Design the sequence.
């Protein structure tokens, strides 16, 4: 198999989840290895085939899975279990299907291994080309369902060395920028970091960051720098390799190699094409960096040792010959595996050289300059939002409006983090505009929608505000008062002089959000 893409990491119980004292866990709760089996079994369609994780571990087998949609190729799934002891076991699954255009067969290999206290999960995608001397389209590779399921499992913690592996984008406001810079300069970092600039917080760059976090899980970390202030704070101390405005940059481990970047036009274009370029860039490197599956090798070695011990305990006259033949075969297999790994690494390095030469040729034809520092700056006086009130209403297309009380409350309050409040209102304007575009139809709750798209914390009700009879206000002569219980929380569980709030009413008739308070929490002070 020609390896094209490799992701591997250790898997353990997420801190805070119930501790699992045995393989089966407390009160029947499955252990880490069993949960990996559950995610892998979806590839054999257990509802139709009856094959569960326990059945897969019972014996090796093969099953053909019909395509779910017309025009998609059928799949052949095969699996090989290894069980030496309750804490020494593994399952290797291979999913094979025809590639379009007669380019051979696509192969995805999933391996869950447990050896003592260490459990790992590994994904290898590649091609069986039957001797076809032609390049593979690695940009079309997408993570298998099992990998996505493992990434979404909140009870599992996935790590590669000191790196935490996730499929979630990390939002970075101004306060988080020092931590992002520390991550970039961490000498122990193993994976590259894709940093995306999203000045408007929501929009195509932020959407691209979320897609990249899912598509590049295990290949790169994804951070989205949200807002003007965070963008300028990041570029003020990142060194010579600036982050483009509303663009992205890939920072390699060690910070020595020149990090590639993509401008705003790329992030506002076809995201699938750009993600294909990133996959083509990172996939060959993953093959070289990951090397062999050491945990699987350890389980297989333990299986061989157990077989040798069983043979040594017998009284057969052929034991000596069998042991010698088995040892010779084992040495030959190891030699072939090592040689195969060397050839695969050589092929991967050649692919990297081809990609570098192609990039150099492109650079010679259209020389690119490093992104220039953006000279624009947020308001000079942090507390004076000035014309921003009207600008936020304009940016939102009238979907976010402010009462005179909101502006007056802000001018009188002593909230100590005006930059954070400015960023929150900047984000709220974009959210309101999109909410109006969708005419309030989101397909899910506003809490989930805002929480998934931005770092803001939204709450639809405020019982304390209602009990204090501070929840109603009038606006534009409307006889029926508006309810301003919906609010954005900035800081919580701290001293009253640091708890920021944006209270607003949701006008479902005119599809707008009416902000009536910007400042500190209105009660409990």
Sequence:
């Amino acid at each position: 198999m020609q390896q094209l893409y490799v992701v591997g990491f250790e898997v353990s119980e997420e801190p805070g989840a119930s501790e699992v004292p045995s393989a089966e866990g407390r009160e029947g709760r499955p252990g880490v290895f069993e949960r990996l089996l559950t995610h892998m079994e979806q590839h054999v369609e257990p509802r139709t085939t009856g094959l569960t994780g326990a059945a897969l571990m019972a014996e090796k087998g093969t099953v053909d899975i019909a395509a779910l949609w017309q025009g998609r190729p059928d799949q052949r799934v095969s699996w090989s279990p290894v069980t030496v002891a309750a804490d020494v076991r593994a399952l290797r699954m291979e999913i094979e299907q025809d590639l379009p255009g007669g380019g051979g067969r696509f192969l995805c290999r999933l391996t869950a291994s447990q050896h003592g206290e260490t459990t790992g999960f590994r994904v290898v995608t590649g091609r069986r080309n039957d001797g076809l001397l032609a390049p593979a389209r690695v940009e079309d590779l997408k993570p298998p369902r099992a990998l996505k399921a493992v990434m979404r499992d909140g009870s599992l913690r996935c790590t590669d060395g000191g790196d935490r592996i996730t499929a979630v984008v990390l939002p970075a406001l101004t306060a988080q920028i020092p931590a992002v810079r520390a991550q970039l300069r961490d000498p122990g970092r193993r994976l590259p970091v894709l940093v995306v600039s999203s000045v408007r917080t929501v929009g195509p760059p932020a959407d691209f960051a979320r897609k990249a976090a899912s598509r590049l899980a295990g290949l790169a970390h994804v951070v989205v720098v949200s807002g003007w202030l965070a963008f300028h704070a990041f570029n003020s101390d990142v060194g010579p390799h600036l982050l483009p405005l509303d663009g992205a940059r890939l920072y390699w481990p060690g910070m020595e190699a020149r990090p590639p970047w993509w401008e705003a036009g790329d992030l506002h274009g076809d995201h699938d094409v750009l993600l294909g370029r990133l996959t083509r860039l990172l996939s060959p490197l993953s093959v070289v960096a990951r090397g062999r599956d050491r945990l699987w090798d350890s389980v297989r070695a333990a299986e061989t040792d157990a077989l040798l011990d069983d043979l040594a305990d017998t009284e057969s006259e052929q034991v000596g010959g069998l042991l010698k033949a088995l040892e010779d075969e084992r040495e030959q297999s190891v030699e072939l595996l090592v040689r195969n790994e060397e050839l695969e690494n050589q092929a991967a390095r050649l692919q990297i050289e081809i990609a570098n030469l192609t990039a150099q040729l492109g650079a010679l034809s259209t020389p690119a300059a490093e992104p220039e520092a953006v000279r624009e700056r947020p308001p000079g006086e942090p507390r004076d939002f000035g014309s921003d009130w009207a600008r936020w209403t304009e940016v939102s297309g009238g979907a976010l409006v402010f009462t005179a009380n909101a502006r007056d409350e802000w001018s009188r309050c002593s909230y100590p983090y005006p930059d954070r409040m400015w960023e929150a209102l900047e984000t709220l304007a974009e959210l309101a505009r999109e909410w109006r575009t969708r005419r309030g139809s989101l397909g899910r709750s506003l809490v989930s929608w805002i929480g998934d798209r931005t770092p803001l914390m939204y709450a639809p009700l405020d019982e304390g505000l209602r009990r204090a009879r501070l929840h109603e206000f009038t606006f534009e002569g409307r006889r029926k008062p508006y309810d301003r219980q919906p609010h954005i929380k900035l800081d919580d569980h701290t001293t009253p002089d640091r708890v920021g709030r944006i209270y607003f009413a949701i006008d479902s008739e005119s599809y707008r959000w009416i902000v009536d308070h910007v400042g500190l929490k209105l009660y409990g002070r």
Summary: The chain has 16 helices and 20 strands. The radius of gyration is 28 Å.
